[in-house]
Amino acid sequence: MQLSQKEKQLLQDQKKHEQVCIQKYESNAQQASDPQLQQLFQSYAQQEQQHLSTIESIMNGQVPSMGQGQQSQQSQQSQTSMQSNAQTGQSATASASASSTASATGSQADAMLCNDMLMTEKFVSGAYDTAIFEFTDANVRQALNHIQKEEQQHGEGIYNYLSSKGMYNVK
Fold first, then answer.
1. Distance in angstroms between the alpha carbons of the first and the last residue of the chain
2. Which helix (H) or strand (E) holds 66?
3. Is 80 inside a domain boundary?
4. Is residue 87 in a domain?
5. In 86, 101, 103, 128, which residue has its Cα 20 to 30 A from 51's Cα atom?
6. What interhelical angle do 5-31 and 35-59 show, nearest 10?
7. Do 104 and 34 form a contact (C-beta atoms < 8 A)?
8. CA dist list (Å): 1 to 27, 133, 135
């Protein structure tokens, strides 16, 4: 696969974005006071690592095959992750009264970590949106679109966590 200069630059940008996401999720997992949030961040760091591997493969000229088997496997992984996130949200709601004894400082710090990652995910998803339109190879566009959907799922998982803790109100 031959990449244009513009495609190469877009992939370089996405590679940097993924590296930043990995670093931030790993760091935030260590800083978070809530074990559920630590687990959520660790899970997302692993998915970001998969995104980075996909980007690097494309940069090395390997066209990602998003055939039925791989799509099904990745879709299954995404669904498992979303189910885990939903359970995290349910557990968080169930333990809301227990968490009232947690320090307000810890909750505020966790909220700041979440808001930072939510802003990061919004930015990265937007960058993927631009990149998708710039690639000529349909398989590359499909792979980038898949990554973008997972970035959006990360944002949704963070929003659900914040909402379940009463830290994010859209009203």
1. 48
2. none
3. no
4. no
5. 86
6. 160
7. no
8. 36, 17, 12
Q: What residue numbers bound the domain in which 157 lies? A: 1-57+105-166
Cβ neighbours for 151, distance < 8 A, ≥ 6 positions apart: 51, 121, 124, 125, 128
Q: Which long-range contacts (CB under 8 A, 24 or more apart) does 159-162 make?
A: 159/118, 160/85, 160/86, 160/88, 160/89, 161/36, 161/37, 161/40, 161/85, 161/88, 161/89, 161/92, 161/114, 162/111, 162/114, 162/115, 162/118
Residue 94: how many CB atoms within 10 A of its CB?
Answer: 10
Residue 123 resides in a domain: yes
Which residues does 36 contact at the CB level (< 8 Å), separation at least 6?
Answer: 88, 91, 92, 161
Are 58 and 143 a contacting pair, CB within 8 Å? yes
Total structural domains within the chain: 1
Is 10 contained in some domain? yes
State if pTM tops 0.85. Answer: no
Number of residues written out for the chain: 171
Q: What is the CATH number of the domain that holds 29?
A: 1.20.1260.10
Return the residue matching tokens 């803790």.
165
Segment 95-149, tens digit of pLDDT: 444 444 445 567 899 999 999 999 999 999 999 999 999 999 999 999 999 999 9
Of the given ranges (25-39, 73-87, 99-113), which has the lowest mean pLDDT? 73-87
